[in-house]
Amino acid sequence: MRIAATITLNDADRELLQRWARGRSTPARLVLRANIVLRAADGARNDVIAAELGTNRLLVGKWRKRSKGTFSSRIGCLISRPTCCRYTSASPN
User: Fold this and answer.
1) For 14-60, what is each residue's pLDDT tens digit?
2) Angle, nearest 10°, between helix axes 28-41 and 11-22?
3) pTM of the complete model
4) Three-state DSSP class for 81?
5) Which regions of 2-45 does DSSP assign to beta strands (E)?
6) Where are the beta strands (DSSP E) in 43-90?
7) Which residues are within 8 A (CB) of 16 and not within 5 positions of it... i.e. 6 or more apart?
8) Among 7, 42, 46, 90, which residue's Cβ finds the most Cβ atoms within 10 Å?
């Protein structure tokens, strides 16, 4: 059995993630990611986190892996940036 990556949160990171997890105007995907990281930092297994949050364990593993180690340096990984320009309007040139 593989060992899941550990996530270390300082107080400021934990507070920010808890605020995102509770935020009513926070995008749903960011709420889910914040909840995944918070539970993973508390030592929960991926399958348990997935069951609690109603998602699959592969998604949980993906976000655990992206935010492993000291989280302060990776906090931007939770905020998604546009990766595709398919929906952007093209200027008529």
Assistant:
1) 999 999 999 999 899 999 999 999 999 999 999 999 999 999 999 99
2) 140
3) 0.76
4) coil
5) 7-8
6) 69-70
7) 75
8) 7
